[in-house]
Amino acid sequence: MNPARRFFKLLWKDKWALTGATVLTFWLVVALVPQFFPELQDVPMELSARLSAPSKEFLLGVNDNGNSVALLLMNGARTSLMVSLFTVGMSLLVGIPLGAAAGFFGGWVDGIVSRLIDILLSFPPLILPIAITAFFGGGLLNVVVALSVTGWVSYARLVRGQFLSIREREFVTAARSLGAGDLRLMFSHILPNTLSPLAVQATFALAGVIISEAGLSFLGLGVNQSHTSWGGLLNDARSFLTEAPFLAFFPALALFSVVSSLNFLGEALRLAFDPRSLSQAGRV
Amino acid sequence: MLGVILRRLLQLIPVLLGIVTIVFFLQRLIPGNPADAVLGVDAALSAKEEWLAKYGFDKPIADQYVAFLGQLLRGDFGRTFANYTPVFEVIRPRLIETAKLAFTAFSFSVLFATFIGLVSAARAGKLADKAAAVVSVLAISAPSFIIGPVLMWVFSVKLDWFPLMGNDTALSYVLPAFTLGAAMAALTSRMVRGGLVDVLSEDYIRTARSKGLAPWKVLTKHALRNAFLPALTILGMQLGVLLSGAVITEQIFSWPGLGTLTVEAVQTREYNLVSGCVLVMATIYVVCNFVVDLLYRVLDPRVRVG
Amino acid sequence: MRTPTAKTLMRPLTMLAWAALAHAASAGSASAATPSDTLVVGFDAKPKSGDPRLIGTDANSQYLEELRFLPLVSFDDSGAVRFVAAEKVTAEGKLGVKVKIRKGITFANGRALTADDVVANYQLQMAGRPGLPPSPRKGAFEAVKEIKKTGADEVVFVLKEPDAAFVVNLVIGLLPKEALDAGPEDLVGKGYESGPFVLEKASDAEWVLAKNPKYAAAPHGGEVPKLQRVVFKVIPDNNTRYAALVKGDLDLVQNTIDADKVMEIRKKQSSRFDVTTRTSASTTFMAFNFKEKAFQNPNVRKALAKGINRDEILQYVLQGLGSKASSMFPPGLPYHAAIPDVGYDPAGAMALLDQAGLKDPDGKGPQSRLKFTLKVPTNKERIAIAKAVAGQLKRVGIDMQIESLEFGTFSKQLSDGLVSAWIAPWTGYKDPDHLRFVFHTDQAPPVGGNRGFYSNKTVDKLLDDARAELDMAKRVPLYAEAQRLLSDDSPYVYLWYKLNHVVTAKNIKGYKLYADGRYVSLTEVSK
């Protein structure tokens, strides 16, 4: 059975993963709403209603700036999912070729890539994002860049390891003896074999990025004021934990639902690609 | 073994050089300069220029870089601009505070992870396992800047079980260590569980059990050790990360550690201090990873450190 | 896997956990009430330096400096110059400023302050010392030609050109001249302090000041401290500082509790805390860059002034911790000018924008008459203010985007004149000459504080004349006239004067707020 079919079959049987997929679909739809109704991107301000609890008029309450939390949450879904997808996408775009080159060619190529990875890994976390957002400002793209600068490293390491172990396998040597060039070998013979662990890791990383962006928001380095992110909402809500706990509750719930869904899906993906662990794993 | 250590030390040199170089140029690229921070933006332009010249910041950037490297080679990190204190004297107390918190959080999370991981693996698929999974995801997805203040309000302000700041009693470590270690404990517990589930189905475990070995002995003597191997790399990296300071936890619990020091230093353009902090943290991180590699060799004779 | 396995293994771990908890619990009580002879003050940041030779613009460092080392002059609670170690300051000719030093001021090591000390301190500020970086406050003495000792208790500062505002620079904490060669770390515990407090210990977490035993005479009218100790706890996080206050770990917090929390304390904790407020020397304004075409039109600037509902922001965002402003200097300062207030008038704002040729393309629709970006530093309150202003301006058809920048980057862009619109405060006025720094053509970037490139020759002349005039009574009308002209031009939209506020535990008595937030009244506090 191919992994994709196995994944969907697993998904169907696994209530948690299925719920995760449903929740993710829900948020994706929510995130697309402001895309099609641009007037929803303008969240009106009603200062006199600030900090009012959830009501019929304001479904999820009003924040300290007099904005409806429901609308902010919707726009936040768009920002957070976008940052998450773009960051992982960009990290993959950088990490795969570099890791592949290092693993495939070895030698000095590997030396350079590996030292670069060492450098970035041993950089204190947050220093690079701080410097980058200080330099470029906190636009959506800049936050993506700031998070990708170190984000690509894990994929590069993974791909490098896979390439190292696969390049000497029979089917690769066979393809080489048939005259396949380096690029062809790398991308049509070896790369497909690394896709499954990459997919699993990327799924978990999508969740990780959302939390990292929240961390940047805490330091005032998240996406700028013209965007709303869940991390930013949570950080703003931090000041009102005692007076208006609902301000933190709804973004936290949204964040948790997406992060846990991604984790469950990642788990399902792992099982789909690695059926060996299926037999023993007590599914949750 | 000695050869491995030597090779690792040699590899350290380009890494550290790369780091200080990136930090040097990054800092010069960021808008603003230390004169603005120390003299204030409103200070007279001539005063700012003179101040910068005293530190050699008016020279071409290449000259500054060479001077900076020369200074480092002599083991001189320089002094802070704000109080003219040797950089290492500023870093040392912060490093100690960070280490105290990091090791507390680390031990807490390893202990917790082992416990939860064992229970989950032992009861794989049962209610306890499912509950552990949900709690783990919760811990991973809740940002520490929410966990921290919630813990603080409930357990310090309302219940008065723990102090709110300071680190003079053992009690004062509980809340920050928990905030810092929760996500890590969750992550590690999942790994321990996964490792255990895998190991428990291996032949040698079945053999050991069939030989009549007590179940807990099987778990601790054979299973746990092997189950921990995959978690080891992550743990080593995590300790490295913890030791380079936890900005958010430090900020929330007023813990004067390395993380907040570095952020402040970047914000006030304390060039020397930033370089010093980054160099110290990078060294710690590299050493942590090195120790992990050595541990691997000890725990799993099949692994050869490359 | 059978269940007993887990249980048997869990037992030792559980026991370990309990043992750890029991150990922790026996280690001591979680909360300690603050001791009765000690006042605990919440600080938002660690003082960057405790050395008068190195202190620059850092406010917390300056606050503690004044408590430890007496300056020649300082400021009273309303912001007017107050003589401390100086008994009298008089003009000597057009260029001389003569300072007579008060008798009876001693350092904690027992030696009396002399003219030699004063000369040595100020010479160090100007010329530096080998082994030390140049003083950050050196710029203030750029106009000094020389400092002369003219008697045992008399020094004269000779200036290069007349400067009525010079005396406000004499605020540097005085060290005994034998201390001037010591390293910055060698100033503690040596008896170099002449103020009411000496530094007992300083760490990253707290600075502890103890009563100066030799500070008895208080010849300048200052008080002998009633308390033995003042501890300044460094708590960088606003919410944690508030939590510490509510928990009872802090006795006094000044200006660093969020407005919302001050209101919360007033509403729900008034039995435990007192909240005191007073006008501060701080004016928040919105400013424009005249290099932007839209802002060159005075009608546009005036429309913005009319489109901002300051009452609404003061009520909801600042929770009443401010009062509407119409000019630079708050009432209470001797050079405050009574300028009529521009009221909130959205209809008038739209009419002005129509006149300026900025018609609303689609009425209530999403399109705007004018779009610009306002920059603020990343600071919770300033972002909240910017968001409120943006929401209000939207009602008159202006699309104001907000960009928040890291503080150093913001300052740099601002001082380079790269920001098209910004909201910021000016704080800590010492002299009306501040207006020249902010509006004089010569002070455009990168030189001074005229960061929007405003230029008006008549205003320039008035400000130059007022600086050269030494008699304050004659200067005030010149500044008033300049402020009237500035109000017509409105290069700034004045928003409000912030209120200083202090939250004190009920048992704390005698603390007095100063306009510029200094902590000198700590000497009068009892518990």
Descriptive overview:
The complex is a heterotrimer of chains A (284), B (306) and C (527). Chain A has 284 residues and is an all-alpha fold. Chain A is built from eleven helices and no strands. The longest helix of chain A is centred in the N-terminal third of the chain and has 37 residues, at 69-105. With 306 residues, chain B is mainly α. Chain B is 77% helix and 0% strand. Chain B contains 13 helices and no strands. Chain C is of the alpha+beta class. Chain C is built from 14 helices and 17 strands. Chain C has helices at 3-26, 59-68, 115-127, 238-247, 259-268, 293-296, 298-307, 310-316, 346-355, 380-395, 407-415, 434-439, 457-468, 472-489, and strands spanning 38-43, 73-75, 81-83, 86-92, 96-101, 144-151, 154-159, 197-202, 206-211, 229-234, 252-254, 273-288, 322-324, 370-377, 398-405, 421-427, 492-505. Residues 1-10 and 23-31 of chain C have low confidence and may be disordered. Chains in contact: A-B, A-C, B-C. At the B-C interface, helix 2, helix 3, helix 5, helix 7 and helix 8 of B face helix 1, helix 4 and helix 11 of C.
Structural class of chain C: alpha+beta
Mean pLDDT of chain A: 85
Number of helices of chain C: 14
Beta-strand portion of chain A reads under 5%
Mean of the pLDDT scores of chain C? 89
- Gross morphology of chain C: globular
Brief sketch in words of this structure:
The complex is a heterotrimer of chains A (284), B (306) and C (527). Chain A is an all-alpha fold.
Write the layout of secondary structure elements.
The complex is a heterotrimer of chains A (284), B (306) and C (527).
Chain A: H1 3-13, H2 15-36, H3 69-105, H4 107-122, H5 127-136, H6 140-166, H7 170-177, H8 182-218, H9 230-237, H10 246-273, H11 276-280
Helix pairs in contact in A: 1-2, 1-10, 2-3, 2-10, 3-4, 3-6, 3-8, 4-6, 5-6, 6-8, 7-8, 8-9, 8-10, 9-10
Chain B: H1 2-29, H2 34-39, H3 45-54, H4 61-73, H5 87-122, H6 127-141, H7 144-158, H8 171-200, H9 203-210, H10 215-243, H11 247-252, H12 258-267, H13 271-299
Chain C: H1 3-26, E1 38-43, H2 59-68, E2 73-75, E3 81-83, E4 86-92, E5 96-101, H3 115-127, E6 144-151, E7 154-159, E8 197-202, E9 206-211, E10 229-234, H4 238-247, E11 252-254, H5 259-268, E12 273-288, H6 293-296, H7 298-307, H8 310-316, E13 322-324, H9 346-355, E14 370-377, H10 380-395, E15 398-405, H11 407-415, E16 421-427, H12 434-439, H13 457-468, H14 472-489, E17 492-505
Parallel strand pairs in C: 1-10, 1-11, 14-15, 14-16
Antiparallel strand pairs in C: 2-3, 4-5, 5-7, 6-7, 8-9, 9-10, 11-17, 12-16, 12-17, 13-17
